[in-house]
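sorry to bug you again but im stuck and you know this stuff better than me. below you get a single protein, a line of residues and a line of whole numbers that encode the local backbone shape. mainly i need to know what kind of three dimensional shape the backbone takes. anything you notice is useful, everything is just below:

***
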Amino acid sequence: MEQSINALFGSKTRVKLLNLFFNSPEEKFYVREISRIIDEQVNSVRR
């Protein structure tokens, strides 16, 4: 299941980002904060 979700959205980072944003729609984040929360590199989050 996880592989098909990654294939649909193109990367595991994108899936983690969407999960974070959909689960906290009212919250604002900084890029470095997001990278810490989802445990991904800053450059991956910026893309």
User: Anything to note?
Assistant: The chain has four helices and no strands. Residues 2-46 form one domain. The chain has a mean pLDDT of 90. The two ends are 24 Å apart (CA to CA).
